[in-house]
Every structure is written in structure tokens, then in C-alpha cells.
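seq:
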Amino acid sequence: MTAYFELTKPKIALLLLISTAAGMLAASGEVRSLPSLTIAIALLFGGYLCSGGAGAFNCYLDRDLDLVMRRTRNRPLPTGKLTPNKVLMFSIVISVISMPILWYVNPLVAGLSAIAWVYYVVIYSVFLKKRSDQNIVIGGAAGAFPPLIGWVAITGNIDIMAILLFLIVFFWTPPHAYALMLMLKEDYEKVNIPMLPVVRGELVTMRHSLIYSLILLAITIAPLPMNLAGVLYTAFAIPLGVIFVYLSIKLYMTMDLLWARRLFKYSTYYLAFLFVGLVFDKAIIF
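struct:
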């Protein structure tokens, strides 16, 4: 049973669920009404099954690569704990089960979740990952759906704030992922995956990381002039974003992978703190 749980990539799923919950709670503050417990549970449980199914399918597709890479060689398939057929069946079953649960929340939530699943499994895992050094940028859109889905679960529609939540995670993904790639460059070289550091070098990767960090800062403060968020959210967004940019600048200026490690660790917690600020802000705005 533990091996099947590992297939769902629980650490990644947890981050996605935090983003989903943040979108849901922020939207609840917007409409001044908390979601019912059944809706909240259905959204998070269904979301976990959907993301876990996509993660398991990715493990099935990448089983040969995972066997070679140091970071992934202890996954259930490379270690022989599970067979490919069992992994494929598990992925399909929990992915299918997630759809009626998410449909119960509302049909748009189910539709967006299905799009995110297809985007990650087909567009990213099958086509982009092994073909383009922009795989993370384009494919990262799949991971940007959760806060949007959380918002839509409450409001029932895709509005400007929902789009901004999507864009925040979309532009957060490249500097977060590039920091990890810089540390694992040799692994990707072994399996001929065209990640940016492998194809275009570390300096270009660090420059791109800085550029996306600056865009991220701009996107995160956009809700204030658009009257979509208040001063409390901005009090979180600006210092958090400035630190993010500072770490990216240090990485670019020094080209020291120590700063890549620091940026990666910081970026892992960044979204959670940013979304906490948004939830608090929405909760007290009248």
C-alpha cells in the first residue's frame, strides 16, 4: 500500500492541495461565505486523486528514466515494488474516480481538473519533457490550475482574480524548478532530458530564473491597483517577492549553486505564505 501512495507523489500533491485550499478560502472571503464541509472535502479529496493519478501516470511513462536518475531511482517502479501494468491501472482507476467527486463540487471544477490532468500527462510528460528546453515553462501550466480550481469551486466562474492566481503559480514555477534543475543537472544529462541547464547552460538558466522572478513580483502585486486585494495581502506579497528576487539576483551574480539550493528551499514555502496573506486579506475585507 505504501508503494501505491508513493506513486501519487504526496509532496507535490500536498503543495497542490495547499494552493487549492488557498484559492477556496480566498474566494470564500470574497463572497463572505464559507464552503460546506462536504464541498471542501470533495474538492480536496477529488483533487488529490486527480493529481495523484497524473503523478502515477508520469511514473509509468518515465519508468526507464527513473531507473537511471539518482533522485528517482527509489520510486516503486525502478525498485521493482510494483509492475508497470499495476501502476498504469492504479493511475487510471484513481483518476477516473476523481471526476464524479469533483463534478459534485461543480462541473467547471471537474472540467478544469480534467484539463490539468491531460496537460500534465500528455502535453508535458509525453510531448514536451523530452523535446523542448521550455518544457517546464509551458508544462508548468498544469501546476497552476489548483488555486484557480479552488476559487472556481466557490464562485462558480473564472474571473480576473482566478486568472491572477493561475498566473502567480505559472510564473513561480520556472525559478522554483530551475533551481532544482541546476542542482540535478548531471542527472538530466544522463537521460538526455533537454532541461534548460543541460541545453543552454547554467548562466542562461540563472538569467531566466531572475527574469521570471521579476515577473512574479509584478504579478503578485497587481491585485492591489486592480482593487482585487487589500493592504494586508500586499504587506505579504511585496517582502516575500523582494526576497525571492534577491535570491535570484544572488544566484545570477555569483553563479554559486549554494544560492540555487537556497532559492529552491525558499520558493517551496513562498507560495504558502503568499496565499496565507491573501486568505487573511480576503477574510477581513468588507
